[in-house]
Amino acid sequence: MKISELPIDKQVIELLSREGLDELYPPQQHAIEAGVLEGKNLVLASPTASGKTLVAELCILQHVLEHRGKAIYLAPLRALASEKFKEFQRYSAIKKPNGDHVRAGISTGDYDSSDPWLGRYDIILCTNEKADSLLRHKAPWMSELTLVVADEVHLLTEQKRGPTLEVVLTRLTEINPNIQVLALSATVRNAEEVGSWLKAGSVTTDWRPVPLREGIYHDSQVQFRDGASRAILSGTKTPSLDIALDVLSTGGQALIFTETRRSAVEMGRKASVAVKSRLSKPEERALSTIAERILSTGEKTRLSEALATQVAGGAGFHHAGLAGIHRGIVEDAFREG
Questions:
Q1: How does residue 261 score in pLDDT terms, banded at 50, 70 and 90?
Q2: Prediction pTM value
Q3: Number of domains observed in the structure of the chain
C-alpha cells in the first residue's frame, strides 16, 4: 500500500516522501486495514523496526489535523520518551487547519505537578508514571485527549510497572469515553486478550525488515537455530565482547547488555581497548569529535570523562546514570553508525 493513497493530510504525505517513505510495511498496512485511521482501538504486536512508530505517528497526526484533537504518547522509560519526542519534532513544520504549527511537548519528571503548560501542545509524551501523576493531580487538559498511544504495552503483565499502566489506561478511558487507544508491543504474546480488555482489535505478525538469527554461543562458536554455525575468535576472553568484535569485523554494529551500571562502564572500557587498534584514521577523527562534544556539553563528571575516553576508542556505555544530554550524544552517534 502506497503512503500517497492514505486518507491523511497532504503535508504529512509530502514530508514522509521527502524522507524516502513511499510504501507501507506489511504490519503497517494491516493496521490501516484494521481501521486505526478510522478511530478504531488496536493492539499492534510486531517485531522491532517493523514500523509501529509510524503507525502511531499517522494516527496522532490524523487526530490533530483532521479532528482537532490532542494525543498522549505513553512510554515506560524516560529515555524512550525522549527518543520519541525527538522523532516527533520533525512534524513541527506541519500546519493545522487554524494555521498554527503542530506542537509536541514532553514531561517525564516532577510527580507533584499537574503541568498545566502541557495543555498548549497537540502531542504530549510522558512516562507511564508521569501520566499517573498527571491524572492524580487532575491536569485539566487530559479531558481534551482524543487518542492515547501506549508503547511497550506488554508491561501490563509486569508486577512492578504493569499496575501503573493499567490504571492510566483505565482512567483515561473513564475520563474520555470516546478516546481511541493504540497499544504497541514487540513482544506481547496475548494481543487478543489485551485487545479484549481495551475493546480493541489486534494485529499480530512476525514480519520484520531485517532477518533475525538466533544462536547460542559455546566453546568459541555460535550455533544458530537454522543449523548454521560460526567460529568466533577468542581474543579477549570475554565471549560477549568477542562476538561483538566479530560483528564489527563484518561491517556491523553491536550492543552488549549488562546487568548493572557499573558492569556497563567496565564492558565499555574493555570494548574500547579492544576496538581502538582496529580504527582507521578517519574513524579516529570522527570519534575524537564526538568525545570532545561529550566533554564540552553538560556537566563534566568522572562518568562523562570516562565515557569520552571510551568513545574516542570506538566504544562506550549507556545507562540511566548518564546525563540526558550525554545519553543523547551516544544514541545519535550509534544511529549514525
A1: very high
A2: 0.83
A3: 2
